[in-house]
Design brief:
Helix content: 10-25%
CATH superfamily of the largest domain: Winged helix-like DNA-binding domain superfamily/Winged helix DNA-binding domain
Radius of gyration: 38 Å
Strand content: 25-35%
CATH class of the largest domain: Mainly Alpha
Number of domains: 4
CATH topology of the largest domain: Arc Repressor Mutant, subunit A
Structural class: mainly beta
Strand order of the largest sheet: 3-2-1-4-5
CATH architecture of the largest domain: Orthogonal Bundle
Number of helices: 3
Length: about 325
């Protein structure tokens, strides 16, 4: 069975002069034109294709890579506007239509917009919509503070960036907590920072506490390895330089460096930070043996304890008597 508007792996039924016919299940045989056929395409083999309607509204297959499929949220560029609507470049020969009644705001050529790709329930045609609210959950969000979530970056606002959470709800990333470049449509992981009383969600791109250190430490080690084990940036560097280079705050950078230093993974010199490839565990001091509770030794300097402080008895003198002759 093949799904329209999605990638499918289909079996080749037969080859003809103008292409290969694929087994589309309930959709019947689907033509894969010659210009899209891979070189190893033979009868009985399988091929990954994208199934959609061509300019004549016929179901067709292509090996071109669409930039999104039905049910995806994706940022696409407008390449043409006419009386029908706006047409987006989604990587296929036939452009993707956004009808005027599906435009949240009037679309302009050469601008990028975050859209939802959908299949029209009446015509089966594939189209897109920038009216995203109707595709998201209208009920209050239900997340745990600190929960890791998948984000799709939305429009810029006065406070920061809107973001779609797990393709279900809207959330907000605040400008003063963003330490990396963002663009509309970018997919990224984030964390729930706060659940507001009105059901709205505040987001952050970094975990709080030790979680930030654990997240950044592997990236910093990779940076050191890629730069011959050295980093000239240190805790005296400006927050702007640290953010530009690593995408984290200076506080997170310093905490991570301190943690790696304790673990013996780095050493800090006046000129920067050096990576230690094979840290050696610190040698533990050898345990000291306790003295025996009692000792039979009574020689001078030994055996003189709390209960053995008597002086040794004086040695008796003996006299030899020689009888008179």
């Amino acid at each position: 069975m093949a799904d329209i508007g999605k990638f499918n792996t289909l079996k080749v039924l037969k080859l003809t002069d103008f292409g290969a016919y694929l087994d589309g299940g309930n959709l019947g045989e689907i033509l894969l034109p010659n210009r899209y056929m891979p070189q190893d395409c033979v009868e009985g083999s399988s091929v990954e294709v994208f199934v959609y309607f061509d300019s004549n509204d016929r179901i067709i297959a292509t090996t071109e890579k669409a930039k999104g499929q039905v049910d995806d949220f994706v940022s696409l560029k407008v390449i043409q506007v006419n009386q029908t609507g706006a047409f987006l470049d989604w990587g296929l020969t036939k452009d993707l239509l956004v009808p005027y009644n599906q435009q949240h705001q009037k679309m302009l050529v050469d601008k990028y917009y975050l859209v939802k790709i959908y299949q029209d329930s009446h015509t089966d045609r594939i189209a897109a919509s920038s009216k995203l609210d109707k595709y998201l959950d209208i009920w209050p969000a239900n997340f745990e503070i600190g929960e890791r979530v998948d984000l799709i970056i939305g429009d810029k606002t006065d406070l920061g960036f809107k973001a779609i959470i797990n393709e279900r709800n809207w959330g907000l990333l605040y400008d003063n907590e963003i330490f990396q470049p963002l663009r509309v449509g970018k997919r990224i992981q984030g964390y729930v920072k706060n659940m507001r009383p009105d059901g709205r969600v505040d987001l952050t791109l970094t975990r709080s506490g030790i979680g930030k250190v654990n997240d950044f430490a592997p990236s910093f080690i990779t940076y050191l390895q890629d730069n011959e084990g050295f980093c000239a940036i240190n805790d005296k560097s400006t927050p702007e330089l640290i953010q530009k280079t690593f995408g984290v705050s200076k506080k997170t950078f310093k905490s991570t460096v301190g943690n790696l230093l304790k673990r013996g993974r780095i050493r800090i010199e006046t000129d920067g930070i050096y990576y230690i490839d094979n840290p050696q565990p610190k040698a533990k001091p050898a345990p000291t043996k306790a003295a025996p509770a009692s000792s039979a030794k009574t020689s001078e300097g030994e055996g003189k304890g709390k209960f053995n402080n008597k002086k040794p008895a004086a040695k008796k003198k003996t006299f030899k008597i020689t009888p008179r002759k």
